[in-house]
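Good day; I would like, with your permission, to put a structural problem before you. A protein sequence and the structure tokens that stand for its backbone fold form the material at issue. Thank you for your consideration; the sequence and its tokens are set out here:
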Amino acid sequence: MPSLLSRRSILGTAFVFILLLAACGPAPLGVGWPAISLANTTCGENTYQHVIVAFNDRVVLVDPADGSGSALLNNECEPRPPEADGRAKVWDFRGTGQNQFFALPSTLDEQTLIAMNYAQRIYEIDTATARANNGEGSTLPERTGHAVAQPLVNGDLIYFGLANKDLVAWNRSDNTLAWSVPTAHGVWSSPLLYEGVLYFTSLDHNLYAADAASGELLWKLDIEGAAASTPLLHDGILYVGSFARKIFAISLEGEKLAEYTTIDWVWGTPTIHENVLYAADLVGNVYALDITNNLSQIWQQKVAARAIRATPVVYEDRVIVGSRDQRIYWLNRDNGTPVQDGDGQPLVREVPSEVLSDVLVIEPTETNGVDETLVVVATLNPAELLIAYSLEQGELKWTYRYQ
């Protein structure tokens, strides 16, 4: 990995440190990042929305209304009796042995999640009980190593990017390895599946396209630097950021259509809203680029003092980002300047630890109990793992800590 490890001080960060751990053994708890998203579960005729979090040794569901652990429900869809010490029984999956989760589970069906831990142990989690249907989990046949990417489900085939190298397809029905696409270095993100083709990035500086059924390599394209995020597909064009300090627009046939040079590495997947691409880099810049004009710059703002790893969130007239400098920033979408709070000051909120995961925006629905639109972030501090603010003025609404 000399081309990755020769890069300056950014290599001291926790998330790049995993490059070394991937080759050396189990990842110690506390070295990693939380992954968060929204997830639904069903009970009877009811659907419940949760924030799902994978971090350290567990996967948990959290109630978006108040930040409490989501209750485990019985067959009558009522909370199960509390623990002997009076604590509520909540949705908390920990597996067996030494677990370390870097990526979220994926939905297999309404009652089952597929999760893979750092040691490449695969769990089929029952959403009703938060327990593994397959006991201590399954292992990938013929493969050893580690995993930090979310699995992708496609019928009986489950695709996994492996932190050491390669993208692999697992036959869930008989626990066999269907195929693998070789890469020179690790695959740190989930592939994108579109019309029977998988598109995925690697730390070996390439973007790959492979047949989703057979694993046949269709093409690979040098994107000049390592990449650690899933490509974005928009109107038949792939968009990807790389550690070459570039954002690329690439055809589905593997042709570079446009590129934009950033100040530093781009880790997160870009997002597009109304023909404008938004991305951030690892020294705290946020970019808005015109996808109708060869990724020409609309604006670029130095926002944070440290890295912005995740995808910017675009919601109505705002762009919201979280940074390793322990702050959340609200920006005006049209020019990237700070949104002003009620006192005329920049709308910025400090949190107790670094923000490495995506930011969630949760809108009120008839079933989630949320009464106003929320911004939810995850930190590296288990005592304040999730923090929710109001979208409009950044008012603190709740925090969640591990039980």
Summary: The chain is about 5% helix and 40% strand.
